[in-house]
Write a structure and sequence with these properties.
With 509 residues, the protein is α+β, with helices and mostly antiparallel strands. The chain has 11 helices and 24 strands. A hairpin with a 5-residue loop joins strand 1 and strand 2. Bound molecules: heme C (3 copies).
Length: 509
């Protein structure tokens, strides 16, 4: 017998035993012990770094167990699946903080939106290199080695061997847990409330704009040090700053920034700031009110040749990204030399005195402290400015959606309205719909966002009142005008309880 047949036979025997077993029994007797009072197996409630109450495991009741409801109810989640001891968050209350405090400095993921980092975002960024990573930084190599002494496989992984052996693999517990736990109430699309609203006007605090701090060019260090040390902005820099236009142009020209600010036309518009490297659901996105000089004011004087195919911006320390931005992406978009954000001069971190911003593309090409703009011919490399390429030649984070503020396992009050917030963006493509699921991806309720502008991000809100003391899940995905749907689904579980006040918080994590 082949392995697969053997397994099928095994399953069959088990089923027969089950049918006879159940058929032979009388109906379960009385309801057994209430899990809320079964102290020993109560799910842990822990306090997150910022004081939020977190319960990673849903409460379950005897009604969640289908068979063998014998006396002395033992919750499956905590007793058998040991769910309180699984997943990164069972040991690290905040992965972002963990990295910030690590001895080896990680590139900055600490600023930006209040989205929670889970291992899904770590993998999203680490998975494929595209020149940002060295091969030694393979994520599983590091995580395994870091935990060799302190964690077991099952703390982080779930394995799957169904009767179909092609689906037997090593999953991350954090990515499959919602499908493995009891006590979660599913709500189908038809029963979900119609309480979705969205806006494109939300402006982020300039100080919290996502900043990679990649630290691989000299002025990265300078900007960071100036920020850390609170160094005053140097006004002389604006007076001395020059920006050159060269390459496929009729006439090479150099402009002085102070002159431009005094004499050139200027515009103030909301523009999104979306990192090409932002993993789906990450915090590498925001929006500012950008004040700047349209680049066309400079290029109208220099004259762009027909042979120009892309725009390469270069920083004063020689920084340039991996190629030029395709000029076709610039058509009809704002392309500006931005010197003010939200009505204030730029901060050092955001590129004082001047950063180039381009509407509808990722901020990978928003070169800070920009000093030279070169128009390249079609023979020169192009920069992938509209998302993060994956190994198959697609884009991993287009569309990109996230849930803001709500943490995995957050305890909320039963009967009180919860406002779930999130974002959606697809770089150069229009997000035509944001879709939510409350039955763990079985059905999706679609909300129209087709009349939106690609130069701005979308922030959305969804209002939901949990009526029962149960756990619920909310998942989000988006659809673009080109028919793309994100495959990395961002899903948060939250736990509604009426007994929040006075809830015992576990000291054990
Ligand atoms: C069973 C508990 C446990 C689980 C589960 C766990 N960790 Fe850890 N982790 C630790 C301990 C203990 C250390 C080393 C001491 C410390 O916290 O600084 C550590 C260290 C780390 C470090 C190194 C921090 C540094 O100072 O350089 C990283 C990164 C990390 N863990 C990430 C993760 C991720 C990601 C997951 C989920 C996939 C995870 N951990 C799951 C216990 C755990
Ligand atoms: C925005 C992209 C991005 C995200 C998100 C990200 N990393 Fe990294 N990580 C990097 C880069 C880039 C490096 C440096 C790679 C190199 O030097 O080759 C790195 C390096 C590391 C290292 C090696 C030590 C160090 O600090 O350089 C560890 C450990 C690590 N990451 C853990 C994590 C964990 C855990 C998460 C999720 C909480 C995470 N990373 C999320 C980009 C990211
Ligand atoms: C601290 C958490 C943690 C522990 C403990 C851990 N792993 Fe992992 N493992 C990870 C992460 C994170 C990855 C990377 C997943 C990814 O990149 O998608 C991974 C990847 C893997 C993969 C590759 C899976 C794939 O589909 O490519 C295998 C196999 C694996 N682990 C086996 C093990 C085994 C066996 C143990 C116990 C001896 C173990 N792991 C312990 C976190 C952990």
């Amino acid at each position: 017998m082949k392995r697969k047949d053997l397994m099928t036979a095994g399953v069959l025997v088990a089923c027969v035993a089950l049918v006879f077993g159940v058929a032979g029994c009388t109906q379960p007797q009385e309801q057994t012990e209430d899990p809320y009072t079964a102290e020993l197996y109560l799910p842990h409630v822990i306090e997150d770094d910022d004081g939020t109450l977190i319960q990673l495991t849903p409460n379950e009741s005897v009604a969640d167990a289908y068979y063998f409801q014998q006396e002395g109810f033992v919750p499956y989640n905590t007793y058998y699946a040991k769910s309180d001891k699984r997943g990164c968050k069972s040991c690290h209350s905040d992965l972002m903080r963990l990295l910030e405090e690590a001895p080896y400095e990680h590139i900055g993921i600490g600023t930006g939106l209040d989205t929670e980092w889970t291992v899904t975002q770590c993998v999203g960024c680490h998975e494929f290199s595209n020149d940002y990573f060295t091969i030694e930084n393979s994520f599983s190599t590091m995580i395994h080695a870091l935990h060799g002494e302190v964690a077991q496989c099952w703390n982080c992984h779930d394995t799957s061997t169904t009767s179909d052996t092609s689906d037997s693999s090593m999953y991350l517990w954090d990515e499959v847990r919602h499908g493995k736990l009891r006590g979660i109430s599913d709500i189908a699309d038809a029963d979900m409330p119609d309480t979705f609203t969205f806006s494109q006007d939300e402006i982020s605090d300039e100080e919290y704009l996502f900043n990679l701090n990649a630290q691989y060019y000299d002025w990265d260090y300078l900007r960071k040090q100036n920020t850390v040390n609170g160094v005053e902005l140097d006004e002389q820099l604006v007076k001395d700053w020059t920006i050159s236009i060269s390459g496929e142009v009729d006439k090479k020209m150099t402009f002085n920034l102070a002159d431009l600010i005094a004499n050139a036309p200027k515009e103030t518009v909301p523009m999104k700031w979306h990192c090409v490297l932002n993993p789906v659901g990450g915090n590498g996105i925001g929006q500012v009110m950008a004040t700047g000089i349209p680049l066309s004011y400079l290029t109208d004087q220099a004259g762009i040749k027909d042979s120009a195919a892309s725009l390469l911006a270069i920083g004063a320390d020689g920084f340039q990204d991996h190629g030029g931005v395709d000029l076709r992406l610039l058509e009809g978009k704002h392309v500006m030399l931005v010197y003010e954000m939200n009505g204030e001069p730029l901060t050092w971190n955001n590129g004082y005195p001047c950063v180039i911003m381009i509407g509808g593309v990722g901020c990978g090409c928003f070169v800070k402290q920009v000093s030279d703009i070169v128009f390249l011919s079609a023979d020169e490399p192009f920069f992938e400015a509209t998302g993060w390429p994956d190994l198959e030649g697609g884009i991993t984070n287009k569309p990109d959606v996230g849930i803001i503020g709500l943490k995995e396992g957050q305890v909320v009050k039963t009967g009180e309205q919860l406002v779930i917030k999130g974002y959606a963006d697809a770089y150069d493509e229009t997000v035509v719909a944001v879709e939510l699921s409350m039955d763990r991806g079985k059905t999706w309720k679609s909300f129209d966002t087709s009349a939106t502008d690609v130069e701005k991000w979308i922030t959305w809100e969804y209002r939901f009142t949990p009526e029962e003391d149960r756990a619920y899940c909310i998942a989000v995905r988006a659809v673009t005008d080109k028919g793309k749907v994100n495959t990395t689904i961002i899903e948060k579980m939250f736990v509604a309880r009426s007994d929040i006040a006075g809830l015992a918080v576990s000291s054990e994590k």
